[in-house]
Known about the structure:
Rossmann fold
Amino acid sequence: MVAHYDDPTFSYDRYWMGRDYEHGAEVLAISRLLKNQHFSQSADIGGGYGRLTAFLMPFSQKAILIEPSLKQRQLAKNYLKGLSNIAIQAGSTQHTGLPDTSVDLVVVVRVMHHLPDPISSLSEINRILKPGGTLILEFANSLNFKSRIKSFFLGQPILPTPLDRRSNASIRHHSIAFVNHHPDTVFKLLNKTGFLIDNYLSVSNLRSPLLKKYLPQKMLLAVEKFFQTSLAHFFFGPSIFVLAHKG
């Protein structure tokens, strides 16, 4: 994973160009799940160049961006420049480098798709959270609407195991893992590692090149805001945001 994000030919910040709707949908989800809450110290784990770290500041007195990639940490220093009470340090979901029970909010977004077996990461997150601490966990959803349509027509069931989205060539070359997770499996893993689920949202429900091309972003996000809750129990969207706490 580190080699991929440190690769000089790969630009994660450039990847987000043209994805303003997806970014806005994720900011909306985090804001909704954390509404009226405030934390003393938060950790954005695997947060890349800090795309979402700044959005934690209205909810957290201090924030730590934990990122394994040196290149992304260097980008984050510039991206988050001028913002106080944000620290940047090396670490990963498996090894954060933080003391036991040291934070009361952990946010993990766009990381689970690199974790075919996330149980050690969830255990580490539980370790660093204070009793009753909050977790926002995002994962790519294998049960999304498009997948169910494809499953129906192909007659192939959607299994509870992680779904590898890489091409055969990428698998042969041992490229970075990229998996979708089944919601039921993620929920069971959260319970197994000591978390209780409080809420979840269906996110990026309108992720379509055609819709993004012809509909204004303001309209897309207005519809997205309604769909995040109304479609959550159907696990409709390609991304699920879970709000949980340490039991």
